[in-house]
Amino acid sequence: MTYVDGFVLAVPADKKEVYRMHAAEAAPLFMEFGAIRMVECWGDDVPDGKLTDFRGAVKAQDGEVVVFSWIEYPSKEVRDAANQKIMADPRMQAMGEQMPFDGKRMIFGGFAPILDV
């Protein structure tokens, strides 16, 4: 089975197209280093929870939309190697300086799939 990096972040609603372009620019780098799929999802039906929710997880502010995304790799080993290359790549470093969201509020993690139908 594949390995998945998952992300949740808050993006100003008026920066939707800027974010989409940023993600589209980053996608070829992830693919170059081994990703097999990258998906970006703009929040459309993200309800407030009673105890916790997506908005609270990223401390979304008024006027921000929650983005849920993931990157799939063929294996954890490929993902680990890709992350090292991506973080050292000057193209990614330049893009990191121009992120259209507050990266400090992004949550992320690596996940081993247990069901894929």
TrEMBL record:
<dbReference type="Pfam" id="PF07237">
    <property type="entry name" value="DUF1428"/>
</dbReference>
<dbReference type="InterPro" id="IPR009874">
    <property type="entry name" value="DUF1428"/>
</dbReference>
<dbReference type="InterPro" id="IPR011008">
    <property type="entry name" value="Dimeric_a/b-barrel"/>
</dbReference>
<protein>
    <submittedName>
        <fullName>DUF1428 family protein</fullName>
    </submittedName>
</protein>
